[in-house]
Amino acid sequence: MENRGIVRNIISIKTPPAQPGFLGPDHTARAVIYNEFRHSDPFILLMDDFLDKKDDEPVGGPHPHAGFETVSLLLEGEIGDEAHTMKQGDFQMMTAGSGIVHTETIEGKSRMRLLQMWLNLPKADRWTAPRVQDIALANAPAIERNGVKTVLYSGSFAGLDSPVKNYVPLIVADIRLKPGAKLAESLPATYNAFLYVIEGNVEVGDERSDLDVNQIGWLSRGVIGEASELVVVAGSEGARVVLYAGEPQYDQIVSYGPFISDHQEEIKALYSDFRHGKMRHVSTLPEEQRFNY
After folding, report:
1. Spatial contact of 169 and 191, defined as CB atoms under 8 Å apart
2. Which among 134, 52, 152 is positioned nearest to 95, based on CA atoms?
3. pLDDT value of position 1
4. What is the pLDDT of residue 114?
5. Residue 33 is inside which H or E element, if any?
6. Which of 74, 117, 52, 131 is nearest to 260 (CA)?
7. CB distance 266 to 212 below 8 Å
């Protein structure tokens, strides 16, 4: 029998509250990961944004990023601009790198829920050329067995391989479990990993820790060369969880506004570049820096 090694258990649980968002009274946001990079490396930030917009005033607009990657999974609705629209279940990884401007605009009445992560770039790739990768739900690798459906957007997991290119090794999987169904899959032991419950509730690991809707559960880690297994069992109503797992980079970062850097002086230079129009809009990237899978 294959050696599955250690079982990944829950080591901490957080229930991020829904708070007023910056897009107005119809916007709520949960800071799933925020200001805890020492423990969450390579994950800098994860926001769960919900918008139930009841008027026709456009919200959102163009804004810059640099020094990291945005990892976006649209759970509900549509979002985008004239260059590209994401629909329910679509995924995008935007490498801001040396600097890029993008636009997230919602026109008219809209109901939308978006998970957007800021993912650290390795120090050697901090200022790489920007690129954007999109994978539609219909094209994402998926498997359904034993009451568990897994859709994989990044990395390798559950026998699936995503075409998305990574600077930091990263697994992103949307997992739906029928009532009582069990997922048991190998996971790289050194990856920092967590589950975020979208619907229902689950028991995790051989300690069978409860994880409920809107909770984030961080998983224990192993060491290099060790095998590890993720075990998740759905409750009586079934469940939907999103798995994020990434290789820590162990680099110090400086975060200010929409930028991540290695030194404070670089932040000032990034603001100067943006003000002087030196950052390209994502819609103007050449074809070799845009990937649609």
Report:
1. yes
2. 134
3. 39
4. 92
5. strand 27-33
6. 117
7. no
The answer as to whether 80 is a domain residue is yes
Amino acid code (one letter) for 147? G
> Do residues 261 and 270 make contact, with C-beta atoms less than 8 angstroms apart?
yes
- The total number of residues shown for the chain amounts to 293
Kindly state whether residue 13 falls inside one of the protein's structural domains. Answer: yes
> Taking a C-beta distance cutoff of 8 angstroms, is the pair 240, 175 a contact?
yes
Indicate which CATH number applies to the domain containing 157: 2.60.120.10
Strand 192-204 with 228-246, pairing: antiparallel
Range of the domain at 12: 6-249
pLDDT mean for each 10 residues of the chain (293 residues): 77 91 75 94 94 68 87 89 81 94 71 93 95 96 97 98 97 98 96 97 96 97 89 97 97 88 86 80 89 94
Other CB atoms within 10 A of residue 252 CB: 11
**If DSSP states are collapsed to H, E and C, what string results for 257-289?**
CCEEECCHHHHHHHHHHHHCCCCEEHHHCCHHH
Strand duo 228-246 + 6-7: pairing:
parallel
| Beta-strand runs (E) in 68-214 | 68-76, 78-80, 85-87, 91-95, 100-106, 110-120, 131-135, 142-145, 148-154, 156-157, 160-161, 170-177, 182-186, 192-204, 209-212
Determine contact, residues 51/21, Cβ cutoff 8 Å.
yes
Could you tell me the two tokens for 170? 């990263």
**281/293 Cα distance (integer angstroms):** 21
- Number of domains making up the chain: 1
Residue 272 lies in a domain: no
- Residue 277 CA, distance from chain mean position: 28
Q: Give the type of residue at 9.
A: N
Q: Domain for residue 1, yes or no?
A: no
Look up residue 158 and give its two tokens: 């559950």
